[in-house]
């Protein structure tokens, strides 16, 4: 076999297998299968209520699926093998796993009482990965990367929504996660602030960071996604390269959704 034909033998960055999630009687994730390769950018589309946020929360183990499993770099999330059986991990072990996943929310969720610098530096110190001076040096680097080197001493309320979201991205990067999950990162922003946040995400995508992004920004998806996943009613209806899913969707539900958002 030549190198060009070599298969990627690394474990998937994220593997979601046969995942089912119910809220009461509502079947919110209905047998979801998703594989994200290292360095890949996956964009998840779908109507409101289709289960996109729940899928991200299951990947991050903020929600526990009733069936199926999720692994990160080949390691199961939330459980460990115990002979033939799976045992639940301790809360502490789950927190350690969660540290390998970055999560960027629609509403930024910064700590209001901490400076921008400390927002970014907090997690590596709290998890014992870095000393405070080391974490602050890293935070300054990361703030430079998102174009906010001059805002280190500001507080979140003094920043625009776009700036706050860029701080949230720097904060997610501070734990050097294997994958970053974005849940509608630009939905809460005024239109003129969307571009600056998308530019930072694009920069991460180009640098080979593994990303899973829920967004309604179709043009952005077309530009940066390796794969587009369309969800409806808790199922992945179709997935593939953007040119396939966005320009030649196979399913009526995908066509219908795209006709509404494009
Ligand atoms: P999306 O992000 O695609 O809009 P969600 O994953 O947020 O969809 O929600 C999918 C469905 O699950 C919705 O009907 C929502 O109301 C329901 N849901 C989400 N979270 C909860 C919860 N914690 N308790 C009960 N129902 C929930
Ligand atoms: Mg959502």
Automatic annotation (TrEMBL):
InterPro entries: AAA+_ATPase, ABC_ATPase_HisP-typ, ABC_transporter-like_ATP-bd, ABC_transporter-like_CS, MetN_ABC_transporter-like, P-loop_NTPase. It catalyses: a polar amino acid(out) + ATP + H2O = a polar amino acid(in) + ADP + phosphate + H(+). Gene3D superfamilies: P-loop containing nucleotide triphosphate hydrolases. GO terms for molecular function: ATP binding; ATP hydrolysis activity; ATPase-coupled polar amino acid-transporter activity. Residues 14-258 form the ABC transporter domain. Signal peptide: none annotated. One of its GO terms (cellular component) is plasma membrane. Keywords: Amino-acid transport, ATP-binding, Cell membrane, Membrane, Nucleotide-binding, Transport. The keyword ATP-binding applies. Its main location: membrane. It is a peripheral membrane protein. PANTHER family: AMINO ACID IMPORT ATP-BINDING PROTEIN, GLUTAMATE_ASPARTATE IMPORT ATP-BINDING PROTEIN GLTL. Belongs to the ABC transporter superfamily. This is ABC-type polar-amino-acid transporter. The lineage of its organism: Bacteria, Bacillati, Actinomycetota, Actinomycetes, Kitasatosporales.
């Amino acid at each position: 076999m030549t190198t060009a034909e070599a298969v990627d033998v690394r474990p998937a960055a994220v593997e979601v297998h046969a995942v089912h999630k119910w809220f009461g009687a509502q079947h919110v994730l209905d047998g979801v299968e998703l594989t994200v390769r290292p360095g890949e950018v996956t964009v998840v589309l779908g109507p409101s209520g289709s289960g996109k946020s729940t899928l991200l929360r299951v990947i991050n183990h903020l929600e526990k699926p009733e069936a199926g499993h999720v692994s990160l770099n080949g390691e199961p999330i939330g459980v460990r093998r115990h002979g033939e059986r799976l045992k639940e991990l301790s809360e502490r072990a789950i927190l350690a796993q969660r540290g390998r996943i970055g999560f960027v929310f629609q509403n930024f969720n910064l700590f209001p009482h901490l400076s921008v610098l400390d927002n970014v530096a907090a997690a590596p110190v709290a998890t014992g990965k870095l000393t405070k001076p080391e974490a602050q040096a890293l935070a300054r680097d990361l703030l430079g990367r998102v174009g906010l080197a001059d805002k280190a001493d500001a507080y979140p309320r003094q920043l625009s929504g776009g700036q706050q979201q860029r701080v949230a991205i720097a904060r997610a990067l501070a734990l050097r996660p294997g994958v970053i999950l974005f849940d509608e990162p630009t939905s809460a922003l005024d239109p003129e602030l969307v571009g600056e946040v998308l530019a930072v995400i694009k920069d991460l995508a180009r640098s080979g960071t593994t990303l899973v992004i829920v967004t309604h920004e179709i043009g952005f998806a077309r530009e940066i996604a390796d794969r587009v996943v369309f969800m409806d009613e808790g199922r992945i209806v179709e997935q593939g390269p953007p040119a396939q899913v966005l320009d030649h969707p196979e399913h009526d539900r995908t066509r219908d959704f795209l006709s509404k958002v494009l």
